[in-house]
Design goal:
4-stranded antiparallel sheet, alpha/beta, Rossmann fold, 2 domains
């Protein structure tokens, strides 16, 4: 369970304080996915950095399973927009990186890695470097690194935004299939309404700066691989767009 109570985050610049998040209250159940959508500058990435333990100066309560966020004690997976791969390491080296940083060794995860690489369509590419991979393949390596860690929480900051539309949809399907086998608590920041509806069991709409929770929507279409082909998916996207337009214009 991820618990946020009255979370407020401000930045100081030029002697002034700018509020990024204000009085955010959320409870995200264990083993669920939450998609967060909001206008630029509303604090979405700031929220992820708080959950990752990168930002530690804030007001309010932030807990993971009843304990304060402490990356040295918890396993936190983080997938940034640029995949976060090291260009001098191979696919295998990048996939192992999270486990090696956390434990200093593979800690018996070799079989798990081979299984993950197979699930993600990366077998046979273990010795290639990021520069030799397509964007979709690089994203798969980033997913392998995060899932191999078996994290307590997985944070994703617009992870598919750099991909073209067709590749993005393919990787979303791959992510969903692998996620179902691990069911890790996941917080996904996205600008894409369709992505939020496809991958979010809960969809959180943040208002404009400073970011506050405007609406929390339970999504009945989550988990359906062919959800995009259903008329309900189209209607859900229209409904969400209408909510967002009304909220942001207000």
């Amino acid at each position: 369970m991820i618990t946020l109570q009255n979370l407020s985050v401000g930045y100081r610049s030029g002697g002034e304080t700018f509020q990024a998040l204000a009085q955010v209250n959320l409870e995200l159940p264990t083993g669920k996915t939450c998609a967060i959508i909001g206008p630029s500058g509303c604090g979405k990435s700031t929220l992820l950095k708080v959950l990752a333990g990168i930002i530690t100066e804030y007001e309010g309560l932030v807990e993971l399973d009843g304990k304060p966020i402490r990356p040295e004690c918890q396993k936190i997976g983080f997938i940034p927009q640029n995949y976060g791969l090291l260009p001098w390491k191979t696919v295998a080296g990048n996939a192992r990186l999270g486990v090696k940083i956390k434990y200093g060794c593979l800690s018996g995860e070799g079989e798990n890695m081979e299984q993950l690489l197979a699930q993600l369509g990366l077998l046979g590419l273990e010795n290639r470097y990021p520069g030799e991979l397509s964007g979709g393949q690089q994203q798969r390596v980033s997913l392998a690194r995060s899932f191999l860690l078996q994290p307590d929480v997985l944070l994703m900051d617009e992870p598919f935004s750099a991909l073209d539309a067709m590749t993005r949809e393919d990787i979303q399907k791959v992510f969903l299939r692998v996620w179902k086998q691990h069911a890790v608590s996941t917080v996904l920041v996205t600008h894409h309404v369709e992505e939020a509806v496809y991958l979010g069991q809960q969809i959180i709409i943040l208002s404009g700066c400073p970011g506050t929770v405007s609406k929390i929507i339970d999504n009945p279409l989550f988990g359906l691989e062919e959800a995009r082909d259903q008329p309900e998916f189209f209607q859900m996207c229209l409904k969400l767009r209408k909510m967002i337009k009304e909220d942001w214009s207000a």
